[in-house]
Amino acid sequence: MSWRIVVPLFDEIGDLNSHVQIKLLRVLETGCFERVGGEETLESNVRIIAATNKDLEEEIREGRF
């Protein structure tokens, strides 16, 4: 495995669909990901910068986040 430092910026985290939310959570939990079409698992040191204008507590209650 090779080491990567990743700092993505999500301007509207509340608009991510559930499929992307699941993948993002897996990277945050494990620190590992695979590139699209890649065969190698990469390790990362992830820091997320995210923003939204939505009420995420409401979105969670409604099952949208």
Largest beta sheet, briefly? 3 strands, mixed
SSE order in H/E notation? EEHEEEH
DSSP strand count: 5
Q: How much is the average pLDDT?
A: 81
Descriptive key words:
65 residues; alpha/beta; three-stranded mixed sheet; two-stranded parallel ribbon
Could you walk me through the main structural features you see in this protein, from its secondary elements to its overall organization?
The protein has one domain (3-61). Helices cover 29% and strands 26% of the residues. The strands form two sheets. A three-stranded mixed sheet has the order 1-4-3. A two-stranded parallel ribbon has the order 2-5. It has two helices and five strands, in the order ββαβββα. The protein has 65 residues and is of the alpha/beta class. The relative contact order is 0.31. The protein has helices at residues 18-30, 56-61, and strands at 3-6, 9-10, 32-34, 41-46, 49-50. A hairpin with a 6-residue loop joins strand 3 (32-34) and strand 4. The termini are far apart. The mean pLDDT is 81.
